[in-house]
Structures are given as structure tokens and as C-alpha cells.
Amino acid sequence: MVQAVDATSFVTASEASYQAKKTATLLKTLNVNALIMGEVGVGKKSLAIFILPDAPILDASNFDELLTSIESCDEIIITNIDNSPNIKRLIDTINESSIRVIATSKSFFTNDFINDLFSVKFTIPPLIEREEDVALLVKSFVKEAALLFGFTKEFNMDNFHADLRENSKSLRKQVTMTYLMQDIGDSELMSIMENYLYDKMGSSSDYRNFLYLYEVPLIRAGLAKFKSQLQLSDKLGLNRNTLRKKISDNKQYLEE
């Protein structure tokens, strides 16, 4: 069983993340260039900072600023190197400057230039493949939210399904919002909706256009609670055909 630890915000409760951290720890002792690959929110940047804690961090899309920094630094972290508008020129500048680079990319990224520059390349799996990490991250984000809002309440895990579409990025947002909203009252909820709708209203079809904001959460909650359209139609006092039509009309939201 891998011990759960936290290094530079990179959680290593799963075997996959433990191995990624182990590779990063080795890279701290070696003067080699490395490329860390993986989806948004898997912890690439955290590991890069762990390897080079004092290095400047620049996104590859900021091309001119990046080239200037390369010429004036001994080491650098380049995020999203796959977004570089001129990868050959970037690699040539790095080689001419003899600078040490730790880079990240959002997907598997390889070509002759990349292969020549980076002697070490490794991929961090998405959180959907790191179940142990998800549980630990939820606890960490709850503590973060409690500190942010000054609350001491327990986090309600009932019906909580982790949003891993953008890994830790979407999970942090979900936990923070859920923690804040779990004790919200009618007046606070209506105030949020009022502020949301204020800048969006203006057409002659606003009632119909924004009805989904009421219907979708009602249908989602009802299906989760009552488990069937038949029971939900009864609880809502709707004809089953009417409920089916509303589900069909809001299919794009209900299938998320």
C-alpha cells in the first residue's frame, strides 16, 4: 500500500502518482531536461516546480518573452510546450543557451526536436485512473474551502460524484462550490440566480430560454432521489409524457 503524502500540491496516494513523484525526485538530482505529459489538472506543473523550485515559469505561447528568458536564465519551466508557435526555433534557442528545461505538455507530444532535447519523458495518468488520489484531493480541497470561507461544517459526501473532466482543476471547483452551497437557503439561492440572470436578460423569449435553469436541476435531483421517471412524474404532478418531453428538451444538460 502506497503511503499518502503531499509534495508541492502533488498527491501521491496511488501507485501511478507515486511512480511519477519518484521520477521527479530522481530528476532533482540529475542535470537533464525532462518533459512531463498529461491532461489538464493532473499535476504536471506541481511536479515541475518540485524539480526546479526556483526556476521561472513561462507558457510556451508567450513566445517572445520565453525566448528572452531562456537567454538570461540557467534553468526554466516551460508549460504547454505543445502550444509553441515555432517549436524548432524554441529548441534551437534552448540548445544555444545550454539552459536546463523542465517542460509540460497537455498530450503525448513527440517529434525529432523534442526527442533530441528531452532525455526523460513521462506521463501522469488522469485522475479517473487514480482513485486513491481523488479521495485524498477531496479532503484537501475541503480543508482549503473551510479556510477560505471560515467555516467549520462537515462536508456532505451524500450523492457527491467527483467531476474529473479537468482532473484536479474541475474537482477543486466542484468541492469548493458544493461546500459553500450545502447549507444555502432559499434567499441566497434566489439571489445567486438573480445576479446570474440580470446581465443575460433582454430578449422577448427570456422565460422560455431560461426555464432550463429551473427544470434541469429539478429533474436531475428527482431522478437521483426517486430512481425512475414514473415516480418522478407522480411526485412532480406531471403527466409522464410531459416529463419525457422535458427530459428530451433538456437532453444536452441531463446527459452530462
What does this structure look like?
This protein is an alpha/beta fold and 256 residues long. The protein has 2 domains: 6-125, Rossmann fold (3-Layer(aba) Sandwich), CATH 3.40.50; 184-254, Orthogonal Bundle (Arc Repressor Mutant, subunit A), CATH 1.10.10. 53% of the residues lie in helices and 10% in strands. It contains 13 helices and 7 strands. It has helices spanning 15-28, 44-51, 63-70, 87-97, 112-117, 131-149, 168-181, 186-198, 206-210, 212-226, 229-236, 240-249, 251-254, and strands spanning 6-7, 10-11, 34-37, 57-59, 75-79, 100-105, 120-123. Strands 4-5-6-3-7 form a 5-stranded parallel beta sheet, sandwiched between helices. A two-stranded antiparallel ribbon has the order 1-2. A hairpin with a 2-residue loop joins strand 1 and strand 2. Helix 11 (229-236) packs across helix 12 (240-249). The longest helix is centred in the middle third of the chain and has 19 residues, at 131-149.
Write the layout of secondary structure elements.
Layout: E1 6-7, E2 10-11, H1 15-28, E3 34-37, H2 44-51, E4 57-59, H3 63-70, E5 75-79, H4 87-97, E6 100-105, H5 112-117, E7 120-123, H6 131-149, H7 168-181, H8 186-198, H9 206-210, H10 212-226, H11 229-236, H12 240-249, H13 251-254
Parallel strand pairs: 3-6, 3-7, 4-5, 5-6
Antiparallel strand pairs: 1-2
